[in-house]
Amino acid sequence: MGYAEQLFDLTDRVVLITGGSRGLGREMAFAAARCGADVVIASRNMDNCVAAAAEVEAATGRSAMPYQVHVGRWDQLDGLVEATYARFGKVDTLINNAGMSPLYDKLTDVTEKLFDSVVNLNLKGPFRLSALVGEKMMAAGRGSIINVSSTGSLRPGADIIPYAAAKAGLNAMTEGLARAFAPTVRVNTLMAGPFLTDISKAWNLEAATHNPFGHLALQRAGDPPEIVGAALFLASDASSFTTGSIVRADGGIP
Ligand SMILES: NC(=O)c1ccc[n+]([C@@H]2O[C@H](COP(=O)([O-])OP(=O)(O)OC[C@H]3O[C@@H](n4cnc5c(N)ncnc54)[C@H](OP(=O)(O)O)[C@@H]3O)[C@@H](O)[C@H]2O)c1
After folding, report:
1. If you average pLDDT over every residue of the chain, what do you get?
2. How many Cα atoms sit within 13 Å of 82 on the Cβ side?
3. Which of 18, 43, 228 to mutate to test the pocket of ligand 1 (most atoms within 8 A of CB)?
């Protein structure tokens, strides 16, 4: 095994990824399995989870467990954790990735139901899952938790305020959890800038008359596989002295 391979090695680790069926989560699931991990792919649409898990297994030879869960529903998260530990006996890395950022025209269009569902998915679910898995990681003597946040939490646009606030809460939660689970379990934020996933389909890019990403240093949006380097860094022992931090993969926001 080469030096870099060893540094990022995840052989026989177990990586649980919410929202692992599509977009950035799917990329991270494949990447973890390519580095030797067994993975749990959890999202609401079981067919998508099953398909993604089958593709991961075929491509990597590692085990991939599909699991249907709504991360915004607190009472469904115990089942996810129980099923994961029943199948694999441990979780080495938890990636709280499932998220959504519904756009709206004006603030009064945001209903209480929509506000609650944004907070439930982007903040409340990750808190509960981190609590459940983090305690087990502490007992096992190792672990890494990655919370996928957004540069919107630092520079909130007018059309994503509840989402930005939830992700800002996630940033704060990361620091608190890093202390709660120290020194055994590391907890970090992986902060994404704009990536061309299903989320970006709502951005109406075709109508833009100028480069909508011109304000970024790299002047473009990210391709989903470009999340992988930072994710593997945080998931593996390559980041053994990194906790409570924010790692940005954002094309260089101003
Ligand atoms: N793409 C971007 O530009 C961008 C920028 C900044 C931050 N992020 C963050 O990156 C993360 C991944 O985003 P993405 O772009 O990959 O999104 P995506 O392509 O829309 O994929 C979202 C994933 O989350 C799952 N999901 C959605 N709601 C869920 C729920 N209630 N319970 C469980 N799973 C759920 C989806 O599967 P199901 O539909 O089957 O549930 C899917 O697997 C999110 O946290 C997002 O906020 C993305």
Report:
1. 97
2. 6
3. 43
| CA–CA distances in Å: residue 232 to residues 15, 169, 228, 238 | 11, 23, 6, 8
Q: Give strand pairing partners of 247.
A: 190
Lining ligand 1 with CB less than 6 A are 18-19, 21-25, 43-45, 48, 69-72, 97-101, 121, 148, 150, 192, 194-195, 197-200
DSSP 8-state class, residue 8? T
List of domains in the chain: 1-247 (3.40.50.720)
Give the tens place of pLDDT for each residue, 212-236. Answer: 999 999 999 999 999 999 999 999 9
Return the exposure string of 16-45: e unless at least 16 CB atoms fall within 10 Å of the residue's CB, then b. Answer: bbbbbbbbbbbbbbbbbbbbbbbbbbbbbe
Among residues 173, 66, 78, which one has the least CA distance to residue 126?
173
Q: How many CB atoms lie under 10 A from the CB of residue 125? A: 24
Average pLDDT over residues 4-10: 96
Q: What are the pLDDT digits (tens) for 162-181?
A: 999 999 999 999 999 999 99
Strand 246-249 to 14-18 pairing: unpaired
Q: At residue 160, does pLDDT exceed 90?
A: yes
